[in-house]
Structure formats: C-alpha cells, structure tokens
Amino acid sequence: KAGVTQTPRYLIKTRGQQVTLSCSPISGHRSVSWYQQTPGQGLQFLFEYFSETQRNKGNFPGRFSGRQFSNSRSEMNVSTLELGDSALYLCASSWDGANVLTFGAGSRLTVL
Amino acid sequence: GENVEQHPSTLSVQEGDSAVIKCTYSDSASNYFPWYKQELGKRPQLIIDIRSNVGEKKDQRIAVTLNKTAKHFSLHITETQPEDSAVYFCAAIKDSSASKIIFGSGTRLSIRP
Predict the structure, then answer these.
(1) Does residue A45 belong to the interface with chain B, where contact is any CB pair within 8 Å?
(2) Dist. CA A87–CA A106, nearest whole Å
(3) Contact (Cβ atoms closer than 8 angstroms) between residue A33 and residue A51
(4) Residues 6 or more apart from B94 whose CB is under 8 A from it?
(5) Does the beta-carbon distance from A96 to B95 stay under 8 Å?
(6) What is the rounded distance in angstroms from the CA atom of residue B104 to the CA atom of residue B93?
(7) A98 touches chain B (CB under 8 A)
(8) Sorting pLDDT into bands at 50, 70 and 90, what band is B96?
(9) What is the pLDDT of residues B37-57, one digit of tens each?
(10) How does DSSP assign A62-97, residue by residue?
C-alpha cells in the first residue's frame, strides 16, 4: 500500500511569507502528527490531528497551525516566516496516534 | 509533561562491536517505548519497540531492555555493521490515547570500519 506522502518536498520562501505543507497518510490511518527537525535537533512535536480534531499541540508559536480533512489528509501552515523556521517538516501517520508511526519523506523548507 | 532524555548524543564504535543507547523517561505511567532509526537523508523508521509488560525484546542483532523501576530503557545493537550508521531516536508514550509523542534528542551512531 502507498506510504505517507508529503508535498512539496522542497521549497524556498522569504521572511514574512507563509507556507502550506501537505501530508497524505496511509489509507486507513486516522491520525496525522507533524514534527520539525532542524540540524542537530531531534524531532520536535508540532501537533497531532485525529478525525479532523487537533488532539495535542507542542510548544510552538501560534504562527504554526494545521488542519485535517475528512479524508485524513492534513495540512500545516506557517505564517510570517522567520529564518529559524528553516527545517525539515515531517509528518507521520498511524491508526490511532500513539503506536507505530509511519513517517513521510518530509518537506524541506528554507527561509531566506 | 513527559520528558525523555537520551544518551549519548554521539557514539562511535568499531565494526563488529556492540553499541548501547540509553533513554530515561519521567512519567511512570508510560507504557510503550519505540525506537526509530533515521539514516542520512531518509525518514525515521521504527526498528523495535517494547511495552511495559515485558523487560526485554530481541530482533536479530537488535534488542531493547526496559527497567520500569528506574524508568529507563536501552537499545542494544550487537555485531555492528556499516549500515547501522544512523541517528537513533527513542520515545516514551503513556497510553493508547496519548498522541503527543515526545522523542529523545537522538544519538548519532557511527560505525568505524
């Protein structure tokens, strides 16, 4: 079966712009979680959606937001981009959100 | 909230030797402990996991041990090979409804030929 698909894979933005990233989970998975990974850093939890509802949120500013659609696809949005937002954004899907996570290949965002 | 500490941050071992990575968690209610491996430029992938009702689990050259009393768990890789070079992340999860999975900071394992 198809894995977790993230688009776009690479993108370059300038400070102040906004960006929307997309994540299509494995068919049947209802949970999608998002992580930020920066060089030398671990996987920083952003938020998790289950059945179109945000169940948990990490310690990121309000500029980071997300949503989930009825088909379980999820998007995350970052507004007013800052240089420090440059990172690899990974999404992961699972059946219930707390067990085995299957990660997508990530969207690498560069903010200039 | 849950906190997971992982050590060491970097580890270099001779090919064929063993490698051990340790994680400590703060919430005694945690009951699921997965390990993910992320090779350079690739996505993290689950390599082994353990639940709180067992103390050890093995899968070929990889094993994970859990000490619930001390609230720590470890990843053991024996007979290391070049393809074991990667960053390894641990996590501790409280229960089936816990969707905020907090990972350790990662261990970069390098295998010397």
Answers:
(1) yes
(2) 10
(3) no
(4) B2, B27, B29, B30, B31
(5) no
(6) 12
(7) yes
(8) low
(9) 999 999 999 999 998 888 999
(10) TTEEEEE-TTS-EEEEE-S--GGG-EEEEEEEESSS
